[in-house]
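Collaborator request log, item 7. Partner lab (contact: R.S.) asked for a structural prediction of Cytochrome bo(3) ubiquinol oxidase subunit 4 to inform their binding assays.
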Amino acid sequence: MSDIHTSHDGASHGSYKSYFIGLIISIVLTLIAFGVVMTGGFSVPVMMVTVVVTAIAQVLVQLVLFMHLNTKAEGGWNFIAIVFTVGILGLIIGGSLWIMHNIHVNMMLN
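Returned to partner:
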């Protein structure tokens, strides 16, 4: 009996091994970000970069290992979904940073 799950159309939905690897990678990435912030031994820019990089890696792990999105499945529609997701994330994160920067610059400190 194979541990690879397939749907009615024959597409692969991963194996227990890929789910386990995804879980371990997700836990490690979470612990890295948590550890860097909670130790307090790093500068703010280092903490910010570490959290952002681990968050991006976490999203990629979730998309590839748990949601099984790739460029080959379903005629490329999964790739379009990935591009759309990256675009929306870019708009949300970029817009949030822009708004926070403008609020910081325009606040009266005295």
